[in-house]
Design goal:
Blueprint lengths: L19 H15 L16 E6 L5 H12 L3 E6 L11 H10 L4 E6 L4 H6 L5 E7 L5 H15 L6 E5 L6 H12 L3 E5 L15 E3 L2 H7 L2 E4 L15 H8 L3 H5 L6 E3 L12 H4 L6 H19 L7 H4 L4
Parallel strand pairs: 1-2, 1-3, 3-4, 5-6, 5-8, 6-7, 8-9
Helix pairs in contact: 1-5, 1-11, 2-11, 5-6, 5-11
Bound molecules: phosphoric acid mono(formamide)ester.
Length: about 325
């Protein structure tokens, strides 16, 4: 049977409804789990006997593989289901798919879906623990958590930091999870991007808005550069990719114009030469691959806590005791 975890509740649908303490519990639990991925034998029996289904209705490289590594490193049994190879293409509904999986006695579902609210919809209808791996424009909570862990690793704190999300804020579930998580941990959060890619009334989420990327870079200690969602660009949100890069691109010249340290994150996949130049993505300010490494530890922590584990016993659990 699935567990209603004392630390996170039954599901992880987003960061909006988590408390500061719950977010810190995930980050602190991820710390001891980092070391497991550095071992020769990357496996502990924490989730032995648990069955987890990774249900991906949208493409993914980082999130899907990272969840699968996290599950396998904790010894869970995993099954991957992609929409293209499932009965979804024959018209089966999300709930029917999930109920059929339930009938095979699963414990957790990790879901990525193109519709905002799909994870909560599922969580309210099945007894298994549900983890949102990105739903439409709504949230991508584990991405927000791994971003915060990466910032904390490098700068030692989140509280009081100035963090700016730059780019296609309108379509970004990563932006929403970052805004909820960072503001709960006491960061000052800003956004910057073209007016056509900025949600109306974004200030209501407690963020300030920069119109010019140069101003955002001058203000920020951390830039989280968002992917320009090219699949939506037929709608004419920006005049051209070249123009977008010229006005909003995070380039070496813009970063070096600020004579102090700046941390650069990007959730991936990147459009090099569009929202971020290769000089910056591969340069000394970038922690983009550290984010990917931290993603496995954060997802291990989420799985562990949802399965009923406690932050204070994670250190013991990683030794397989
Ligand atoms: N960051 C992220 O969600 O990447 P994927 O789409 O590759 O999973």
């Amino acid at each position: 049977m699935p567990t209603s975890a004392p630390y996170l509740g039954k599901d992880l649908v987003g960061l909006e409804h988590l408390t500061r303490e719950q977010i810190l519990a995930v980050l602190d639990t991820a710390e001891p789990f980092k070391e497991i991925s550095e071992r020769q034998i990357k496996k502990v029996p924490v989730l032995r006997g648990k069955t987890i289904v990774n249900l991906f209705f949208e493409p993914s490289t980082r999130t899907r593989i990272s969840f699968e590594f996290a599950e396998k490193r904790l010894s869970a049994d995993t099954v991957n289901v992609a929409a293209s190879g499932s009965s979804v293409v024959k018209g089966e509904t999300l709930v029917d798919t999930a109920r059929n999986l339930e009938a095979m006695r699963i414990d957790m579902v990790v879901i990525r879906h193109g519709s905002s609210g799909a994870a909560r919809f599922l969580a309210e209808r099945i007894p298994s623990n549900v983890i949102n791996a990105g739903d439409g424009r709504h949230e991508h909570p584990t991405q927000g958590l791994l971003d915060m862990l990466t910032i904390r690793d490098r700068l030692g704190r989140i509280e009081g930091l100035r963090v700016c999300l730059v780019g296609d804020v309108l379509h970004s579930r990563v932006a929403r999870s970052n805004i909820w998580g960072l503001t709960k941990l006491g960061a000052e959060v800003a956004v910057c991007g073209p007016p056509t890619l900025m949600p109306r009334e974004i200030e209501a989420l407690g963020v300030r808005v920069f119109k010019r990327v140069e101003e955002a870079i001058e203000w920020a200690e951390v830039l989280n550069v968002l992917r320009l969602q090219l699949e939506r660009m037929q709608a004419g949100y920006v005049p051209s990719l070249r123009e977008y890069n010229r006005v909003y691109g995070v380039s070496r010249e813009r970063v070096e114009a600020v004579p102090r340290d700046l941390l650069i994150l990007h959730p991936g996949p990147m459009n090099r030469g569009v929202e971020i130049d290769s000089d910056v993505a591969d340069g000394p300010h970038s922690v983009i691959l550290n984010q990917v490494t931290n993603g496995v530890a954060v997802r291990m922590a989420v799985l562990y806590l949802l399965a009923g584990g406690a932050p204070e016993t994670a250190e013991v659990a990683k030794h397989g005791e």
